[in-house]
Amino acid sequence: MLVHTKHFHLGRNQFSGEIPDQLFSSNMTLKHLLLDQNQLTGKIPPSLGLVQTLEVVRLDRNSLDGSIPSTLKNLTLTSELFLSNNKFTGPMPNLAGMNALNYLDMSNNTFSSADFRQWFSTLQSLTTLVMENTQIQGEIPPTLFSLFQLQTVNLRGNKINGTLNIASNYSSQLKLIDLQNNSIDSYTVRPGLPFQIILMHNPVCYEEGSEDYCGISQTNFGYSTPQDNCLKTQCSSDQIFSPTCKCAYPYTGDLFFRAPSFSDLTNTSIYESLQKSMLSSFSPNQVPVDSVSLSNPKKNSEYYLVLHLQVFPFGQDHFNRTGIATIGFALSNQTYKPPPNFGPFFF
């Protein structure tokens, strides 16, 4: 029994077969269980609920089936739970009590049809609720949108009906409510809402198709670490202008974050915190780093957050072999730890 193991990062490895029940025990100190994008079959073992140290669970994009065990609600430290794109059936699990849960995705499973569950509105840490094609029906309680940290609600392709009503005390962090392809026939309009609502392919839009909420507005957000107050300088064709106004050859690559706790990619403060964290982590290791630039945040098809990284050398226009090796080791071997809300990553 691997009781002292902290991380199972085993996604995208073509594993097949069932997850053995004896793999998990209450003596484990496991933090990350990443088994996404394999070929796993069978049921989630109920013993998974014994590992109460778990912070991130990704079982999405497999062929797991049966009912989701009720023991999962015992994972009270878990902040990210991905169960989407499997073959789960039976009732949707009651996850009330998972008070640390930020990101929940159970999309594209064949749960039994049931009214919208009240326990969703009890998840006080929730930032992101993604439940596409999960057979949810009935009306959405307005209290859902009042969750303090809520940023994104995606309930496309369900059987939600009745009236959509967003209470006046909605979350100040809300950016998107996507309810495409449901059966909503009425919407209590609140003018001037600072977030996007999408109701296309609902009965409410059959007669009111010209309303903004009956279409999809294209929002393009591009972020790049801002530069200091730089005078315009022409770099040579293969050099890049750094945030501190220097022309250089940066160490470059992409960072892939497997389970970030947020879904609002327009919040620039999260990138600033990561940039400062990376810059401070290199300095104690005697790496000659002048600045760090992050750009082009996006979610890929695997729901990983992808960020383009450029690390600029200090006092020279390029890194020597030692500098390259040190930065590469810190990123590839996970000696660098990002802020907690970014979760596990690879480079």
From TrEMBL:
Keywords: Glycoprotein, Membrane, Repeat, Signal. It comes from the Eukaryota. One of its GO terms (cellular component) is membrane. It is found in: Membrane. InterPro entries: Leu-rich_rpt, LRR_dom_sf. Pfam families: LRR_1. SUPFAM superfamilies: L domain-like. The keyword Membrane applies. The keyword Repeat applies. Gene3D superfamilies: Ribonuclease Inhibitor. This is Uncharacterized protein. It comes from Solanum stoloniferum.
